[in-house]
Amino acid sequence: MFILVLFKKSLTASQKSSLRFKKRTIVFLGFLILPIAGYFLVNNWYKNISKNNYVNELAGNGIYEFGSAFWNNEIDYNRFYATKTDTANFAILRKMVQTRNSILTNDLLSVDRTIKCDSSSKKWNVVLISVESLSGDYLRYFGNKDNVTPYLDSLIPHSLFFENFYASGTRTVRGLEALSLAIPPTPGQSIVRRKDNGDMFTMGNVLQPVGYDVRYIYGGNAFFDNMGKYFGGNGYTVLDKRDIPDSLVNHVTAWGVDDEAAFNYTLQQCDNSFNSGKLFFNHIMTVSNHRPYTYPDGRIDIPSSAQVVNGGVKYTDYAINDFIKKAQTKSWFNNTLFVIVADHCSKSAGKTGLPINRYHIPCIVYAPQLIKPVAEKRLVSQIDLAPTLLGFLNQTYTSRFLGSDVYKRDSTNDRIFISTYQDMGYIRNNKLVVLSPRQKVTMYSVDYATGNSQPIALQDSLVNEAIAWYQGASFLYKGKKYKK
User: Is 151 within the bounds of a domain?
Assistant: First the structure.
């Protein structure tokens, strides 16, 4: 009321005067400068005038802080989680990423190392299929009774099969982050969805400079979850449903085209590379195993109209079978690694915040002429797949990956990472360390089969390792030391 009385005369006068369009436009643009200046010139870090987080939070505006968190898609690790010095963290990390064929650089605050191979690189192609929501417990191999993955189960005796393979998170972008960047999750959203995520050290940016055609092929719209911008800025040619010819499409949902269409389009891309004399690395992301779980009729014994998860799983299994059968007729088949892995599990709810069984996913490497079939029982993280595949290719390169080649790493250093949006889990030696906001640290013994966990006393060495991995990953990302 006071402000209204104070400006009463000015407001009354403004109603009696008239401005021409040009002057109104100039005045409007003048007012528009204020929010634009606020966007570009104001930073939420300006309020951080104290070492006390409570003081800094009181100094912040709640609405502005909410907007800043939404825009940046991240939670600052150092402000909210248990920390150690960077020197202490990297002393641990450098020991744990060391493999038999690597030589670390002299930068003590990095994991940069030369991966050296004792023979020339293998001229092999790679097709990496990341399957939407393919939980380990869908496979008959792990006890499923519904027979929804008959083809994948039939591949296992003829493949390198990782029995104890674990996803990093609960979202597709978390899986894509792990598979391409080989980095543990950092608090907040996946790096795929963040700003300044281009020119990073990815699988694509390793293979593209050595002559590979590198593609990310998605049956949906790559605008979703920032996939197109991320992969396009990191060495991949992005192809999505807008590139897939209508003649290949059998069925469309809100998520995109049927998996058969994406696979048949991938076959064309493989042919194009082969015919031009180039090797290829094609990363495919499926969409059909997602609500509403509909797909082309007549493929499997569960009708599309049922719209049930078993139908989505079984149809994707059918589509992978169809894809590999067609690939077997191609000249490039015997020279190609087919890698089938989930992005995450179909559900991650459980009795604990991080139920380990809800992160268990299948990983199959099928290449009957190249890779010896074996059931690998070691504990393997999703972030280890890219460096392990590069190991199969016998690539010599300078690595910044925090993941490492399973077959060059000492088995005593095997560990996995699991996470939610806020809780960061580290599992080693059957013990789970959980890092949570407010510098909270808890520790559990874990049951891999049931996901149940029992609280146990903190073990300093494992806590320090967990902090080193997660704080170290945040340090490398924010310090731009994970750039290529």
Answer: yes
What residues have CB less than 8 Å from 151, skipping those under 6 apart?
317, 318, 320, 321
User: Can you tell me whether residue 83 is helix, strand or coil?
Assistant: coil
Q: Do 414 and 378 contact (CB within 8 A), yes or no? A: yes
239 within some domain: yes
- CA dist., res. 198 & res. 191, Å (int): 10
The answer to whether position 49 is within a domain reads: no
Query: pTM of this prediction?
Result: 0.87
Total structural domains in the chain?
A: 1
Provide the sign of the torsion angle of the four alpha carbons 19, 24, 26, 29, taken in this order.
Answer: positive
With beta carbons less than 8 A apart as the criterion, state whether 175 and 130 touch. Answer: yes
Instruction: Quote the CA–CA distance of 376 and 162 in Å, as a whole number.
Output: 5
Residue 227, H or E segment:
helix 227-232
| pLDDT tens per residue across span 156-214 | 999 999 999 999 999 999 999 999 999 999 999 999 999 899 999 999 999 999 999 99
State how far the Cα of 58 lies from the Cα of 424, in Å rounded to an integer.
Answer: 26
pLDDT tens digits, one per residue of 407-464 = 999 999 999 999 998 999 999 999 999 999 999 999 999 999 999 999 999 999 999 9
472 is in which domain, residue-wise? 102-478
Beta carbons within 10 angstroms of residue 272's beta carbon? 13
Q: Is residue 451 part of a domain?
A: yes
CATH number at 341 reads 3.40.720.10
Q: DSSP assignment of 240-296, as one string?
A: -TTTS-GGG---EETTEE-HHHHHHHHHHHHHHHHHTT-EEEEEEE--SSSTT----
Per-residue HEC secondary structure of 308-363 comes to CHHHHHHHHHHHHHHHHHHHCCCCCHHHEEEEEEECCCCCCCCCCCCCHHHHEECE
- Which amino acid, residue 230? Y
- Asked if 187 and 81 count as a contact pair (C-beta separation under 8 A), the reply is yes
C-alpha–C-alpha distance, residues 384 and 286, integer Å: 21
- Beta pairing, strands 374-381 & 160-166: parallel
Residue ranges of the chain with per-residue pLDDT less than 50? 45, 48, 51-58, 61, 63, 65-66, 70
Mean predicted lDDT score pLDDT of the chain? 90
